[in-house]
Design goal:
4-stranded antiparallel sheet; disordered N terminus; 11 helices; alpha+beta
Amino acid sequence: MKFKTTRRQAVKVSPTDLVKVTLFQPEQPLPLVIQPAVEGINLVTWVASNRDLIETWLLQHGGILFRNFDITEVAQFEQFIQTISGQLLDYSYRSTPRSQVSGKIYTSTEYPATQSIPLHNEMAYSLIWPMKIWFCCLKSAQHGGQTPIADSRRVFQRIDPKIKDKFIKKKVMYVRNYVDKLDLSWEDVFQTKNKLELEQYCQNAGIEFEWKKGNHLRTRQVCQAVATHPKTGETVWFNQAHLFHVSSLNSEVHQTLLSMMKEEDIPRNAYYGDGSPIEISVLDEIREIYNQETVIFSWQEGDILMLDNMISAHGRKPFIGARKVIVGMAEPVASSK
């Protein structure tokens, strides 16, 4: 008597059977939230098998929040980024103080806990920026410390056409003065103590530089006000004029600086690309649009927030207590300027 042999059928599991995919807020596409649907899901393994799906979701929503995957170590976070995008980027031509945690993972901006950081796209003050940026919460603050986000496509759509047209035509000029103890030193910003290396970097990056008395460096660079996403073709508001402009300082700090130096010597400022002043009323209008488009979620320890840096802007709320949020960046993009 012969027994009929049968082959064991492989069970096909859909990627979405292993995870639960939801919106953080109903009718609000940013961010998409991904959580494990079953116990024991290894996030890095799941991501490795679903990179195309993640990319599709990211381009649609602008940001993805990975939650409850038990991410507790810097190495896990770094491996997660490498699995999606390969090599991480150095934080070069710096705008804010950060410390290297491990490899190319950095602390989030080390401004005092009492300060907020306005919404912005990472390195939009430059002609080269990361396409993707990730944040990982290793320790949540006792109170506050959220990383607000906003859709830069919607920001662009809502700005008055006359304002947009002027910025598109003239672009944005960033003027920086590197003065110790008032802002980052040029050695910290450019990650070198060699003036020749700095000058070579500036020449390659299209940054005008001028050495002043007392080892004082001044730089100027004209950059884009808007950008076209290379994959979706969508136009996004992509500059940091509202953040660099002296009007972003509170009036007391502004007046103190002006009592110490001329306006052209203030650590950072922004102008139209032809050097003419940007109207404060215009910047206030842009800031209000950012405020209205802001989405806020509270960090949970182990959270990873992945943003398309051209689609989504990010910031930081003031906080109380210890807070540890680390950052990684990847996939450099050059301006079409």
